[in-house]
């Protein structure tokens, strides 16, 4: 992906098929910005002009501040529930170059919209600028409006890839702690307000923790595991285009909203009716953790 403004082109280089930008290059192929992430995919820092800036988040995953290597706040941000920018007081060249804010999304300041991979989101109207390729669920009318953002519930839901709205983790404990430690390591004088925020942070409920485990597992699946799950006999083409991106999104939805029951021996399964077809995901829950075994669409 690339973007050109006033004759200056910026090329974005992603981490595999994830939504995380690793670095950006200019017209000449020179790296102009780099990004550092935690193992959970939390954006921790931006490097530019030989300087490092550290990201600070609130409980809704919004970037609320940037600090430099000395711990000085060089940018502060506030937003309304839909992502309209209410405050941006970036004070340095590097801070002004930051494109990440509301929910950690990429903000295109030239058009005042968020780039969410599959399509753009327009916060003033609270809608996407293109229709969702997913037709939605008949038992959930909100999902059948192809332009809705986060099922019209931006407080509890997020939609980082522009395809399916998912539970908002509100900056899950592990990722938040990692980001805080990283910023603290590079900036010993982090502001008192940031310390107060972290002190007041609370862990998420069990259901959201399991959703986080599901996302982490799907991301870690190797090519053989993905190939097995998406093989033709599993019928994914009946509810999607069969790509791993859409299949894993449906697995996430099933694990989040599906009906749970026993499967074989100690295994469990979750089922979800989607586009009049039944999606099945099998898994094992042990010691508070889940491990996904398989997933498929039941034959008619």
UniProtKB/TrEMBL annotation:
Domain Bacterial toxin stretches: 222-297
InterPro entries attached to this UniProt entry: Ntox35, Rhs_assc_core, T6SS_VgrG/RHS, TEN-like_YD-shell, YD
Parts of the chain that traverse the membrane: none
Keywords: Repeat
One Pfam family recorded for the sequence: Ntox35
Location of the region described as Disordered in the Swiss-Prot/TrEMBL record: 204-226
Domain Teneurin-like YD-shell stretches: 26-155
The protein, known as: Uncharacterized protein
Organism: Listeria monocytogenes
Lineage per the UniProt record: Bacteria, Bacillati, Bacillota, Bacilli, Bacillales
